[in-house]
Here is the input.
Amino acid sequence: MLAIYVVLDGYDFGAGIVHLFFAKKEKDKKAITNAIGPFWDANEVWLIASGGVLFFAFPTLYASSFSGFYLPLIMILWLLIFRAIGLELRGQIHHRLWETVWDKAFGIASFLLALFFGIALGNVVRGVNLGMVENGVSAHEAHYFFLPLWNPTFSPTAAHLGIIDWFTILLGLVGVVTLTIHGANWIIYKTNSDLNDKLRTVIFRLNFALLALVILSLVVWHVIAPKPFLNFIETPWLWIFPILTLIGLVGLFWVKAFKKDGIGFIFSSLFILGGFASTAASIFPKLLPSTNSINPSLTVYNVAADEYGLSVGINWFIIAFILLIAYVFIQYRVFKGKMDDIGYGEH
Amino acid sequence: MEDMLFYDRMQFAFTITFHYLFPQLTMGLSLIIVYFKWKFLRTQVGHYNDAAKFWMRIFALNFAMGVVTGIPMEFQFGTNWAKFSELTGGIIGQTLAMEGMFSFFLESSFLGLFLFGEKLLGHKLHFVTGFLVFLGSWASGFLIIATHSWMQHPVGYEILSNGKFVLNNFTALFSNPWLLPSYLHNQLASLVTASFVMASIGAFYILNNRHSSFGKLFVKTGVVFGLVSSVLVAFPTGDWAAKNVVEHQPVTFAAMEGLFETQDGGSEIVLIGQPNVVDKKLDNKIAVPNILSFLTYKKWDAEVKGLNEFEPENYPTNIPGLYYAYHIMVGLGTLFIALMAAGAIQLWRKKLYATKWILWSLLFFLPFPYIANTTGWYTAELGRQPWLVYNLLRTSEGISPTVSSGNTLFTLLGFIGLYLLLGMLFLILVGKIINKGPVTTEA
Here is the structure.
């Protein structure tokens, strides 16, 4: 569900970044807000639902990670609020200054959100000092921790870790580039704006950067998390996820040749979903690795709720999920095709 | 430790108070909008449809505010109340996740269609989407209050040796005796807010001599819905909710009523007075003998337990706060019934739109249902203290062990600043909508 959230809200963030860097003309900005306007809030609901499911299925993980990543999570909340009001308030008053302020709020918040989500992924891969062990003694219960925003050395291998270090920043950049491409693909798919040709070039160029960043992160991944391929060697069918990721990435080099506007979006979605699945497959069964040898990593086995609760939960979850798919289907049916003329946010 | 608990509680209290300013309007308002759409379908009078459209715009703005301020609520269970989440997540996580998956998705998906899809869908389907929005928002309230009820009166659980609460009976969560009275009481209170807002804006238009035909419709609808809901919110639903407190949290009830000592031969009801916690008495009180016993047990001389019968460590932590919150709610509730009854009498005599004092009162009563709803929730939440899960888990045991008070103070200040900005923007935009007013579409 979290992966679906990133695919869906990810294009909103990406559109925001495109809006910040590439949309110079009023017409282009309008095209972008039209393309995401009717969708962003329903996309954000996936975040709430993912949080809720995490809460009841893995209460210990929810408690541990939400309190440990306290500062970045609260900042993500603030950014989500700025993203929302930026998008919704812009059209309310027609004045150049008012529009500029909310354009920037929307764009910068989207950029930072993409960066933060990449950094978050980096933190999960790298692991945290569970129990806050100091000189071989846990200062807290085995599954609790707290991370400051950064440590003075910005090193992912230091004794005192921070949220932001050079490894997580690297993944943050992967996040920004990936979602920029993803957002640009969505805009191409949903609009006929003049921007589209320019965006195809942007995607083509950024894809080289993305390829380089992905290779670089895979190399340093070895330094941070030992034996990342162990699961793949033991269970070969898992290779399907990295292969799908690669197809998504390589496919985007042909962005200028696609006959239909939606194909690019499919490839970037494939890259994101595949990347998520590969990461999960690589650290499985861990959900949050421990960087010390005293307290065990949090795994799907030691943080799950009790059996009765999970079995009841899965029943209503399936019903709810079918309903969700139906709603999404109805919503995208009604707002299908190009959206240049809906005049989102105009009053 | 004390500091940490204080800032965690302040942050939750501040963000939830601000958040609930919006859903309390949207839940009630969605019902009245559905009523307008239904009237339109029945009578084919375009006036009703135009009224519905006007209120939809106010609804949408409030809904958006509710969404952006609601996400921090869910996050805070994990960020600030990690221990509580870890221990009880297997139970309250269920109802909270269901809220997101069932009701919130329903509401937000169909709101988009309801707002932008009238031409596309036709009037009948458009009515259906409106009804689904109403259903989603009321289901949302139900699941949140199911969570609240479990904390007030835990059911269907067992406690493992490691202190974790696990669910052993899913349906018990919904047959909890605390749930139905609280839910009905809360939904009717939400309808009170919506009715007063409607009547208030209607009165504003009439007094201003603008959009008068809409103004009359809004005042009339607001007064009728308002009278029914203000009466029902007090009796029987408020009475039911209070009986739950008497039965399951007698110490809370004693503190709410400011009853420091058990009184022989029946308890008096306090109308006004200031609790003096040091000397354990009420200062400057005005009270009527035996009424409290009668209201509680239907017997004039029944014994109502005073605070003296309980252990001080189980007293609600803020007795004066609880007492004032409860009395403000009850006092305002009484005024609501009086004002709406006066309005209804004048409406029946066909003199309402010319009775200036009622119109002015309606206009200026706008903030009071918000205050009554907020103090009502303070009564419930302060009354549960010092417990997070009543009688089982203390509030001080639920906070995140690793988040320092400095960090929470920082984020609390951030929320205050950000919500101040949000509040100002909201007022500007809602002012714009009201100033523009409803638009009559040519049939």
About this structure: The longest strand of chain A covers residues 286-288.
